[in-house]
Amino acid sequence: MPLAKRQGATAVRKTSSRGSRTKSRSRGSSGGRGKLQARFKKMQRKYAKLKKKYRLIRSIPPGTTDRYMYEATVFAHAYDFTPDELRASLAAGSQAPHGPYRTALWFLPYFETPFYGGMHTILRFADFLQKRYGIRSSFAIVGTKDTSPIAASIQKAFPGLAGNPVYPLPNIYRFDGLPDHDLGICTLWTTAYSLLKFNRVRRKLYFMQDYEPYFYPSGSTSSQVMATYRFGFDGICNTPALLASYEEHGGRGAAFTPAVNRAIFYPDPALREAQSPGRLFFYARPGTARNCFELAAAALRKLKETLGGKVDIVSAGAEWDVTRYGLQGIVRHLGMLPYEQTGQLYRTCRAGLALMSTRHPSYPPLELMACGSLVVTNNNEWNHWLFRHGENCLLSEPTATCLYESLYHAVTNRELRERITTRALEYIRQEHSDWDGELQRTAEALSIH
């Protein structure tokens, strides 16, 4: 077994390099922590106002650092509705289930970059509706007053949406500045509460991109999330698994399967195999529980103990400090990379570790496959529609040693790697390379035209 090699493994250096890249990452990490601290302080101020308004005398002990309780208490009072409001929404949202439609209003949370994951998919769909069917999209940014940075970022990502209205919605239930639209589309679960009470539309839809109750412990907030799946909105579901999940709650809709941008994500086998030492990518987001950072870190420690200098582990996906998690000398963290650079990095990696514990696989595994990197991920039955062990990836049980074993074979077994990545590339080419085709099929299934 490869674990036996650890006794003679090359010692792992515990100090990080002092080059300019390390200094740059430190600044980025500090900036990321500063943003988190600012958000937490904002949450504290919001809770203080709610405490005064609703007389929450001892709901939260003074000085507590329990972020979940703060957030759950804020959410309990912020996201609310009456039975009459639900009935009014159902009546308003079923006026014209078959169109024609000319305008759509998207309710979006505040976001910083439009180039990654779910937000990119939302904007891609809005751009597609406008180009293919002439449905002009507007965007209501929930919980913010200044929309100018978001308007600029939307234009940068999708020039076809330049000039489309972007409305601030600092009060999530005050819609004075919003005109009537044909379609109302919510995205993150919190935005569903705004759409529930905005009835100046002919039809309401839910753009569902993860099973969001899993973002929280089973309790108050997860219950509020699940309630949104019973609002009666038609679902536009990102993957068949999410459509099945929506239907579990009585919802109805249509599903699409995500695709990859083949202009950015494509293979270069010679470049990948020329890397010495062999490179492993780690999709690392310690602040996002669903990505199972702790399990991944434990597995990577074992891998580095065994292979030492024979493996180069690089990570990206969020801003964080390797020293805070004891991964100095084990992982080289690159922070948040520009979108185009992710493909450049993936092409140099023999394998990629990307874990997900919810009902959506996320985009990095698809992008890694498209770049010829062997995907290692956790065994999650909700994602078996995509992941097939030994055919397009290696599935591992979610323990440190099981993950370690899979990673060891992915990095060291070239024959295994070439066999699986060849099949994975063909799978991506056949099933995940046509965004327009997927979006058109979904729009037609929902009679959005």
UniProtKB/TrEMBL annotation:
Q: Does the keyword Cytoplasm apply?
A: no
Identify the stretch(es) annotated as Disordered: 1-37
WsaF C-terminal domain residues: 279-407
The EC class name is: transferase
Query: Quick check: keyword Ubl conjugation in the entry?
Result: no
- Gene3D superfamilies tied to this protein: 3.40.50.11090, Glycogen Phosphorylase B (3.40.50.2000)
Q: Which GO terms describe its molecular function?
A: glycosyltransferase activity
Q: Which SUPFAM superfamilies does UniProt cross-reference here?
A: UDP-Glycosyltransferase/glycogen phosphorylase (SSF53756)
Query: Which Pfam families does the record cross-reference, listed alphabetically?
Result: WsaF_C
**What Enzyme Commission number(s) appear in the record?**
2.4.-.-
Q: What is this protein called?
A: Glycosyltransferase family 4 protein
